[in-house]
Amino acid sequence: MRTFAQNLAVVGELWPMAEFTGEEKKLWNDDLSGLDQDTLYESLRSVKRLRESLYPQLPWVLASYRELSASRRARSKSLDPHPKLALEISDEEDAMLAGELTAMIEASSPSDFAAIEEVMLGEKLPRMRATTASRLLRLLSARRDPSPSQCDGPSPEDIQQREEAAALLRNHADRIREKQEAST
After folding, report:
1. Is 85 among the domain residues?
2. Would 84 be classed as within a structural domain?
3. 125, 94 in Cβ contact below 8 A?
4. How large is the angle between the packed helices 37-50 and 58-79, nearest 10 degrees?
5. Nearest Cα to 162, choosing from 151, 175, 153?
6. Could you give the angle at the alpha carbon of 155 between the alpha carbons of 173 and 110, nearest 5°?
7. Are residues 56 and 112 part of one domain?
8. pLDDT (tens digit, 9 = 90+) per residue, 47-95?
9. Of 15-19, 74-78, 85-89, 121-125, which range is least confident?
10. Same domain flag for 20 and 102
11. pTM of the predicted model, to two decimals?
């Protein structure tokens, strides 16, 4: 992995006639030091090949860097076997689904939980945030898998855990509704 100091030395070797003022050095440092130095090195070499000048120009280097970076990103995207989905999840829909599914879970019997989970993980999951889905799945799991001591019914701790999970989801939905009302 190259460093910025190494790339500054390359500038001096590729353009031995170039002398920079203090302010020019600051500009080069400000604009180039935070970049990927391996890509910057290739950009410097590319500028030297394509531009016949005794002095390098910062805009040439930056343009070359952008081109190289873009082509590398495009190449890596085409090699990605699992492209990322760009999902827009609205606060309103997330809150609505949280409330709807919480009510469904609380009102259902254990025999219905497999169907609820299938709906959640199938059609509803892409439309809700990960934290909301996680809370709903924990609530569903707590209701589905009673401990052996719960054969006669849920323990007070389990009831409290369910109520806390449901309250968290309701609070989340309420905060989103409040944001919506404040913005309208």
Report:
1. no
2. no
3. no
4. 120
5. 153
6. 65
7. no
8. 999 998 999 999 999 999 999 999 988 887 776 566 555 567 788 888 8
9. 85-89
10. no
11. 0.45
DSSP state of 2: -
Query: Around 182, how many Cα atoms within 13 Å sit in the side-chain half-sphere?
Result: 6
Residues 176 and 95 sit within 8 Å (Cβ to Cβ):
yes
Paired tokens of 59: 């805009």
Long-range contacts of 52-55 (CB under 8 A, 24+ apart): 53/15, 54/15, 54/17, 54/18, 55/15, 55/17, 55/18
- Those residues whose C-beta lies under 8 Å from the C-beta of residue 1, and which sit 6 or more positions away, are 37, 38
Number of domains forming the structure of the chain: 2
Q: 172: which 2 tokens?
A: 């989340």
Report DSSP letters for 5-40, one per residue.
HHHHHHHHHH-TT----HHHHHHHHHHHTTS-HHHH
